[in-house]
Amino acid sequence: MTLTTLDPRTALVVVDLQKGIVGLPLAHPIEPVIGHVRTLADAFRARALPVVLVNVAGAAPGRTEQRRPASPRPEGWTDLVPELDQQPDDIVVTKRTWGAFASTDLESQLRARGVTQVVIAGVATGTGVEATARQAYESGFNVTLAIDAMTDGRVEAHDYSIRSIFPRLGETGTSADIMALLPAIEGS
Fold first, then answer.
1. Is residue 126 part of a domain?
2. Distance in angstroms (rounded) separating the CA atoms of residues 122 and 136
3. Does residue 89 sit within a domain?
4. Closest residue by Cα to residue 60 from 100, 28, 116
5. Phi-psi label, residue 10: left if phi above 0, alpha if psi -120 to 50, beta otherwise
6. Beta pairing partners, 120
7. What is the pLDDT along the chain (188 residues), one digit of tens a residue?
8. Does residue 65 lie within any of the structural domains?
């Protein structure tokens, strides 16, 4: 679906751009992804729109067939990358599941700020980003996905989410497409 509009109270949600994850092998170089996210974050902050920085520290309980990474994680693993230029007004959410809404207070924080739409970016496209988008959609938020501001460890997971899942959850566009719509909501 083509990106059509941004609501006057839209938040940027950045998923798992943290030191321990961006150092893993990824399908696309991480530097341009971080650059696009930083551009979006700066633009949202300049318009006094909420910026949510999400990190992951652990995993949901339960058995899986796929081996989980060892715990405890190395020192600094959950630290957000400094390029995000975290600001005092940013909302910081630590999750222990794939999505940023499950088992956190993210939804209530966004509702308290009158947010009706989220723009989602980050890592990994097929897990953290997709789960966050699904949860946002199911919670009644309008969802936009910044497809050049995300990547995954697996090309096929990244491509599948963008091609088959995201159009069912919201609108997709590049960070430039999103930036082009931001002036329409300036002064929020």
1. yes
2. 15
3. yes
4. 100
5. beta
6. 13, 145
7. 579 999 999 999 999 999 999 988 899 999 999 999 999 999 999 999 999 999 998 765 666 566 666 666 667 879 999 999 999 999 999 999 999 999 999 999 999 999 999 999 999 999 999 999 999 999 999 999 999 999 999 999 999 999 999 999 999 999 999 999 998 776 54
8. no
